[in-house]
Amino acid sequence: MSEPLALAVDLGGTELRAAAVAPGGQILAQIDTPTDATAGPARVIDQIVALIGEVRARVPDMTFLGLGIGAPGPLDPVAGIAIAPPTLKGWRDVPLTAILSDRLAMPVMLENDANAAALGEWRFGAGRGLHSVVFVTVSTGIGGGVVADGRILHGQRGLAAEIGHMTITERGGRCFCGAIGCFEAVASGSALGWRADAATRPGDGSRLRALAGSGAVTARHVADAAREGDAQASALLAEEARWLGIGFTNLLHLYSPEAIVVGGGLSVALDLMAGGIAATIIERAMPAYRDVPVVAAALGRHAGLVGAASLVLEPGSTRIVEAA
Fold this sequence. Notes:
Blueprint: E1 5-11, E2 15-21, E3 27-34, H1 41-58, E4 64-71, E5 75-76, E6 81-82, H2 96-104, E7 108-112, H3 113-124, E8 133-138, E9 142-148, E10 151-152, H4 183-187, H5 189-198, H6 207-212, H7 219-227, H8 231-255, E11 259-263, H9 270-284, E12 294-296, H10 303-310
Parallel strand pairs: 1-4, 4-7, 8-11, 11-12
Antiparallel strand pairs: 1-2, 2-3, 5-6, 8-9, 9-10
């Protein structure tokens, strides 16, 4: 008889993804759909229920341990409440696990989406076999999760490790949170794109503008141009690497992980920035922290789904299962 599976949902403001996941972390069935994020919680919950039904239909005759959900914060993972996620309109103190448990007739567990991705990489990806890992996603913003001594670090109401809002400089643009100098405001993919866009102009003959066409220059254009050998893009990536290195140094000093695992859209350029990140860490970190590897995430965009599934692979346990 096949082992029971876990159901998983990655709830984003743009995309809603559901999957059936085997105990070893393999995704056996997956369905994605745009999130109806402006329609309120009732509509999105209906979407989740419908997707779960479709996923279950793709793996007939299988049993399920329950459903794990990775969702944007702030949220309370213990109470199972979505407090006020800014990417989902009208969501305030929504008892998501209670509602879905009732409608699906199965156990449901909730976790911050960055924490879920951290769990996925720790249990089944680049952090497998380690006890302490910091996962950093560098994309539109910067988020992350911390596994410390075999446990996700939650803090009060699950709000710990909001690493994108560490203050690392007194300059830079204003962050969406209202502060100046946040890690996210200077080192995210969005920030890199803004710097590249400001450094070029339409029709200037630059490779960055050629790649961007009639639109704005983005971090992806910078990475692509740098991989082609473009000097301007390479200089922009070198600056990005320094900002990341400064932030990573703070994370090393704060959490003392065995590895920093980097995911998100900008991780595709990690190999191009590795030297600059390492040089900054060597320059700024205390000697005991300098040999910690900075590695690319192994699960890609599946990390959140696999991590959410892992929430229910050990039913009733408040301690995360030790990595194999």
